[in-house]
Fold:
Amino acid sequence: MENKSGFSSRLGFVLAAAGSAVGLGNLWRFPYLAAKYGGGIFLLVYLILAVTFGFTLMLTEITIGRKTGKSCVDAFGMLNKKFSFIGYLAALVPIIIFPYYCVIGGWVTKFLTLFATGGGKSAAADEYFGGFIGQTGQPLVFLGIFMAVTTVIILAGVQNGIEKVSKVLMPMLAVMTVGIAVYALTIPGAMDGFVYYLKPNFSMFSIKTVVAAMGQLFYSMSLAMGIMITYGSYMSKENDLEGSVRQIEIFDTCIAFMAGIMIIPPIFAFSNGDTSMLQQGPTLMFVILPKVFASMPGGQIVGAVFFVLVFLAALTSSVSLMETVLSVIQDKFHIKRTIGCILILIISFLIAIPSALGYGELSSVQILGRSFLDFFDFISNNILMPIVGLFTCIFVGYIVKPACIEEEINISGKFKSKKLYTVMMKYVAPVFMVIILVSSLVGYV
Ligand code: PHE
Structure:
């Protein structure tokens, strides 16, 4: 991400941004949240938020990036000196996410090796995953491997390579996800789960649903952490901003939607009516998918290929997280890239240890009723990101004014959603963000 050469085409830009957006958030996080927060009602709330908030915020970030040509730490300051703190706050988010993202990346690595070595069937047993994350050595080793691979890629500076690879991978992942989702629906008993996933049950609606959906939106679309600002800074002035944002959003949302079908209906199929598994949380994907593969003809091979793709999708996202952290450190402390990398690796590994051991050795330690991993996830997605989002709205709505954004968008085409955008930025989004923050803080969630 360091080279300022820019993206060669609109498609290149859209796919690269989608490469950052599509990752564990879609495949791992979205399904367990949808399962937990009422299925259809969560999906509905998420979709409404995606076309309103998601669209507004992503458009804002990419536009700020393209306008200033800077990364997040400098972009806000360039538009108004007093507000450079928003950039710093945003930069804090990947610092928190990166370590625990790698813990999940480690889990994926473990499953990948398991399926690739023909042991996938054993993962279909109920206790398998719990047994794995309950250990001390294995989760740490796989965390280490995943972090090390991420670091090697950053050190080699082959972001371009990874970018190119993800152009091939993303469509492959999409095809696989659709295939597995369609298969999942054919498992006897899956239909009840499909209905649960699609049909909104309004009695399950609460502020928690909205808070969780909003946190997911930020996470999945890589918003409120400066990533989209950086990507926007590489975008050419001729590319249609509004249209590109819509495409990134649609891609990201479709993958999440399909991942939900891949995981939620099988819960109903494999649980004999006991749906307590819906509440499983962060471990859900790793418990359900092996069962789907075990029941599928050729499932071991499909499983192996699938986990390779998830691994690579996670890797492209973790690379973008680490690169962001690195660029902030380099800008501020003027240290060499290699030294910065090693420092991040060591510090992030240390921070990740409690998250990796939170389901075994440290399972008795809970922060605000959450495991370490859940806690870090909560702090970044439900507290820090809404704060950054709120400041961004105030900044654009009242300080630099929506006209500043409009001007940039108009360079490459007429701003079609101008009215919606202005109302969202000035009134709806800030009020909403405050409600989310307050309800997160008073422990509503
Ligand atoms: N959006 C990514 C996902 O869905 C996560 C991510 C967040 C990636 C921030 C990069 C930066 O997995």
Remarks:
- Residues 1-5 have pLDDT under 50 and may be disordered.
- Residues 20-21, 23-26, 97, 219-220, 222, 225, 227, 317, 320-321 surround phenylalanine (CB under 6 Å).
- The CA atoms of residues 56 and 424 lie 7 Å apart.
